[in-house]
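Weekly structure sync - notes
Attendees: PM, LS, DV (DV joined late)
Agenda: review two folding runs queued last week.

Item 1: First target. Sequence and structure tokens pasted below for the record.
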Amino acid sequence: MIKDILAQQEERMKKTLEALHREFGSMRAGRATPALLDKVMVDYYGQPTPVNQVANISVPEPRMILITPWEKTILHEIEKAIMKSELGLSPNSDGTAIRLNIPQLTQDRRTELVKAIHKKAEDAKVSLRNVRRDANDAIKKLEKGKEITEDEAKKGQEDTQKLVDKYIKNIDSARDVKEKEVMEV
């Protein structure tokens, strides 16, 4: 029973970590990456659609993203979506493709990004703590219902804490890697 609870909670922790990695991937760090466009939605025949589902996205140079739409008619819509996005990038179109030049980050912008990175990492840790609380509540419920012994409950809570510690280390290392990437000049 405790194993089931731990397995279920570890799955939630994995999802928290994956979400954090996606968040970090969509943050601009002075280096071109297709993940920057993950949150950009294009109006495609009246439906909001992610850019990567209507165009080929490549990185021909370290500071450039090349977007080649599958249909030329959608080129203008992609440009509008990029302009509306929070990326702060201006698209250059040649009629067949869009080039996004990624400028160097200013020191102020780097500092802002580091703060945002720390906040996202802290939010992920809070989420892990909520998972831990849920797991511990479920274990205590089993103990109160006399389904497990006090020792088993204590061991289950210790195992939950070990799991949380492991994922907090993963979050810290992901944060450190992203911070280093942002501060790189």
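Item 2: Second target, run right after the first with the same settings.
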Amino acid sequence: MLETEYQIKGRGIGTAHLLKSFTFGDPNARPHVYIQGGLHADEGPGMLVSRMTCEKLLILEQTGKISGRVTVVPVANPIGLSQFGLGQQEGRFDVYDGRNFNRHYPDLTLGVVSRLDCLLGEDPKENVAIIREALRQEVDDWPADTPADLLRKRILQTSVDADYVLDLHCDGEAEVHIYTQPEFIEALEALSAFLKARAVLIAEVSGDNPFDEAVSQPWVALRQLYGRHAIPVGCVATTIELRGRSDVQIDLAAQDADAIIQFLIAIGVVQGEMQKPPEMLCEPTPLSGSQALISPAAGLLSYRCQLGQFINRGDIVADIIDPLTGRIDHIEAATSGIFYARADTRIAEVGKRLGKIAGKDPIRTGLLLSP
């Protein structure tokens, strides 16, 4: 195991943040899988699963069973971990400027295209190597200066040449669900099955350039621009939501880490006996078909439906009760599908996101992810 430490300068005099990565297997081997947890620093499940995956990989490495390379960053956002207000951790947004730590990554595509010029040929393997070098150069030249952008840059430098990228998150309260691009569905089918995902949400562009799209979207764009015959998919990336914020449990984390190890076996990174993937619990649905239930009023939040339940259009999913007047507002589903996520509080304000239903038919445009 190779342990690497990076210093991210802080905003104040004499302050800095520490980012650690752990690499297992030959540092030059392929496939290369990058796994990180805690980019939203107030989301613990991904950090615990990353740590437990490290423990399993260490044993596999000691027994010579890692054929490829795995890089794990268990705590991907030390800046967010240092932010507290009134006793509560604020790990989703940078409290300095309000930006989401999992948005606003640089769009590397145009810069990479300008670097490629006439370098690409008919050999797919050579093209992949050329594109990866262009991506590395583009990230290195990105003029990051704030602590949050320096963190973004360091994470990209560690992951941009990976064949697979797994970004581990969680929701408020949720079933396991996955975000990815349509082109990656087949490559991630075994992972979705092993994780028992209840929703697989797909979009070519979800908006605001989150981390997973920053590393994978250039490959999709280049394949469309130059033709797919000469450019393989060089990076399959996904955001994995590991249930809810309170689901920091050793047994669940061990189960998820085992699922990731099975996926690593399936793609040839780890040697071992691959279990037969269980049947998929869902079909991929468009992210644009996912209804975000929004509160029209302030009040107490009472859910009528359970996570994982199939909701029919028109069903009442929740009620908002005004304790001063007794008024009750019913929250109806505008689509049919699996109720896969909901809020982890029971007091709602106007405009609060109350839950998500994975519908099959597109009903939204524009920015598809929550802020």
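Discussion on item 2: Helices lie at 45-62, 78-81, 109-116, 124-140, 147-159, 189-194, 211-226, 250-266.
Action: LS to circulate a short write-up before next sync.
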